[in-house]
Amino acid sequence: MQKLFLSVHWESGNYPEKLVRAMHNSTRVISAWDGDKLVGLVRALDDGETVAFLHDLLVDPAYQGQYIGDELMKRIMSFYQNLLYVKVMPSDPKMIPFYERYGFQQYDNYSAMVRKHFL
Questions:
Q1: What contacts 116, CB < 8 A, 6 or more positions away?
Q2: Do residues 52 and 83 touch, judged by C-beta distance below 8 A?
């Protein structure tokens, strides 16, 4: 898993033990594999009724352009058809059109705030 996170230059890839615990503590984790190589992943946290937060949608750069991210989104969103909200905070503005294809909208009066705490 660490290699996947590092392949997209995410700081969290430097903390493999935390990544493993994060996956275990997530409500849903869906992964994509090429044999025994992890090439994509999406995870979510939800309350089962009103809201889900999508986290960590990532695809190894060597596998991008093969619709793996689209398939991961379709699969994770299939679990959340009856919730009131599904939220995502794209860390890269270039990803906004991708999420808009799945019905996500930006709101001018709403922006996420982040507190980083890397050791």
A1: 11
A2: yes
Q: What is the pTM of this model?
A: 0.87
- 80-116 pLDDT, tens digit each: 999 998 999 887 888 889 999 998 888 776 666 555 5
E strands along the chain, which residues? 28-34, 37-46, 51-59, 85-88
Do 4 and 41 form a contact (C-beta atoms < 8 A)? yes
* 26 closest CA partner among 45, 13, 12: 45
Average pLDDT of the chain to the nearest whole number: 90
Distance CA 59, CA 39 (A): 6
Phi, psi (5° rounding) for residue 72? -60, -45
